[in-house]
Amino acid sequence: MSVLFLLMGASFVLAVGFLLGFIWAVRRGQFEDTETPTLRLLTEDGGVKGNPLKEKKEPHE
Q: Is the pTM of this model over 0.85?
């Protein structure tokens, strides 16, 4: 029975830790802009030219 109380206490401490981590991330602005990173891929110039997997590599001598 004492193991049950030990596990309940450990799960409570873990849950409080996750809650504090989430609150910290929200206050630091981690979740403010969720749209821009997905759209940045469509508007960036440059990128990979050709298919690097199909290009033949020269053996080193």
A: no
